[in-house]
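We give the entry.
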Amino acid sequence: MIQRIPTLGQTSHWQKSLAEAFTRLADLLHFLHLRADEVHASEDAAQQFKCLVPLGFAQRMKPGDPNDPLLLQVLPTHFELDKVQGYVADPVGDLNANPVPGLLHKYHGRVLLITNGGCAGNCRYCFRRHFPYQDNALSASQLEHALTYIRADNSINEVILSGGDPLLNPDQRLAEWLARLADIPHLTRLRIHSRLPIFLPERINDSLIQALTGTRLKIVMVVHSNHPNEIDHSVSAALVRMHKAGISMLNQSVLLRHINDNVVTLAKLSESLFSANTLPYYLHMLDPVSGAAHFDISTSEACALHTDLCNQLPGFLVPKLVKEIIGAKAKSGLNLNFRL
């Protein structure tokens, strides 16, 4: 039986917060007491990939600081307009791993469902910033095709909900999807990749927890935080709340120039995450998506940084340094010669 989840009360609070997001570059800069010229801001870049910044996330930025590490992740700049060889619209080969609309199948044992195309905020390095969501967001008919595909392959034991951000979907819809997936006998896990617990921690309410924990499936939540300044008290409380509900909590970060490309920042991020009952999981090299080349660092720099991180932290606090290579059977690990 499909579980019925209330849609009133707390849910309206996060939706109100979502509606308060900055959608105009000028408004964001005014809020932070910054001029466009001192932060290389670009309306043209914002036209190509919408400016979208949650108010709560902006409130964690330092007013007047053009180098704030949270601002740099979401600020449209003229660097995005540079055409750089090797940086493409489909940097991880999603379109060649798309057997039915709304579903990606790259790796053995697991598939990914594109639940929707929207996010609570637009990170400027997003590897799906050019993805054709209009063809792949999970409509009712596409869901049926995806479920048929999953049922037909007994080797699949895990489904990943991604997007966009799957937690933008209403609790009722999430509960119904989980119930449908739980009816497939060979599925054992559901993994959710979301930035909402960081961008919009009020999204983690009783109704959502009930929706996510109402089936036999083991739930894994992979949140996305790149800098310790993102994890304030409200974010930490949201992460702890999910952990206490029996959800396995992991974090993945992207290694970004001038944002977290130093060992002090990465070590503090790992410690902050662990204090919130969330384990560091992946430290990704930047996917070479068009418009994001200015965030990239070299593999040699990344490996040296990761080695320093290993020397400072116990192994369980060191995320795996990885890169996604089109056609590979799994994420490719880097810095494999260093012993934890």
Remarks:
- The chain is about 30% helix and 15% strand.
- Residues 86-333 form a domain with the TIM Barrel fold (CATH 3.20.20.70).
- The two ends are 47 Å apart (CA to CA).
